[in-house]
Amino acid sequence: MKSTSLQNAMDRHGLTDKDLLDEVLSAAPKACAVIVTGSLAAGFGNEHSDIDLVCIVPDGQYSRLPIMVYRDGAKIDCEYWLLPDLIAAMDRISAADLQQDVGHFQEWKKLTRALQLLIKLSVAYSLQVTDSVKPLWDYVHSADFKHRIRTWWSLEALRLMAAARHALPSQPRFANNLYSEAVLAALSSQATEQSLLFGKKWLGEKLRQSCDETGLALYHLALELPCGDEAQVRERCLELDRMLSHSSVLEPWLYRADGLCWWLTPAARLNKFADCVLLWQGKVGYEFPRKHAAESWSCDRPLQMGAADGLDDNATTLLFKDGLVWPGLAFSSATAGVAR
């Protein structure tokens, strides 16, 4: 279904579906599918948004489709996606054990990228979809795909909350940042799957549209910068912790009857790029480094959340350096030291 913002953009520039389709097929007649994705297709665009036109092709033999087209004042960004890459992303997501992958840096990175790619497809407006793309199209609109995105957000919130609790004794201001991100992740799990793609602004708009006053209040609280002395920051962290502990997203995980434990894995510092695949930070522009010690981390020597008191301040500071880091989280079936 075409979103209102996409229809308005096309009307503003006098464009039709056929105009966009012909733009691609004239250069790539064997395209498997032609879609419009991005913020306009997702119903989040405005008069300044570009039209994101995507051609899905069966192999790497790219045609002469330009990367950018101007038509009657409209800026149309053109992009190729490879069908094998999309199918591989679908296979990775459908076969993933998210509860295990969240504790493994490399697997979580790959899973995140796969989700973001398929979310771009799920929000898209189709101009043409052939039979070769139909199974993929059906999957990104399935209940299973939406469930996996919600689970991804729930585990992100849990991972960030566990890291915040661990950092709070020695680094309350950094813990505040982690708590804020945990809140936004928990709200994203409830409000919208697309916030994985479009970030915090999209989440706020969805909460307003759904008239979720409680969610909006928590959303604004999470976006506030911490002020005051260290004691006030700690109190704010505890307030966010209480709210998260009673959220419908995290409560089932935090109080599981089977005595599930959460283990904190080494943190990974993220690098800043001008344009990149994004993580829980929304559209800030951060990406995983290509190589990091966390990629080779093994579960045989985890930092148990229940044993955090045994770490001195230096060890905690080394684990959570100031800056943007990716605190890991792994699961264990052990019954001792349950993180609360």
Explain this structure to me?
- Mean pLDDT is 73; it is low at 269-325 and 333-340.
- 47% of the residues lie in helices and 16% in strands.
- The protein has a 5-stranded mixed beta sheet. A 3-stranded antiparallel beta sheet has the order 9-6-10.
- The chain contains 15 helices and 10 strands.
- It has 2 domains: 4-141, Beta Polymerase, domain 2, CATH 3.30.460; 144-332, no CATH class.
- It is globular, with a radius of gyration of 22 Å.
- Strand 3 and strand 4 (74-82) form a beta hairpin.
- The protein is of the alpha+beta class.
Task: Name a few traits of the molecule.
alpha+beta, nucleotidyltransferase activity, Beta Polymerase, domain 2, 340 residues, disordered C terminus
Strand content: 15-25%
Mean pLDDT: 73
H/E topology pattern: HHEHEEEHHHEHHHHHHHHEEEEHE
**Domain module count:** 2
Quantity of strands, as a count: 10
List unreliable stretches of 5+ residues.
269-325, 333-340
Largest sheet: 5 strands, mixed
Helix content, binned percent: 40-55%
> Which word captures the global form?
globular
Between the first and last Cα atoms, what is the distance in angstroms?
A: 44 Å
Please give the count of helices: 15
Which strand order do you get reading across the main beta sheet?
A: 3-4-2-1-5
Structure class: alpha+beta
Radius of gyration: 22 Å
Summarize the structure.
The chain is α+β, with helices and mostly antiparallel strands and 340 residues long. It contains 15 helices and ten strands.
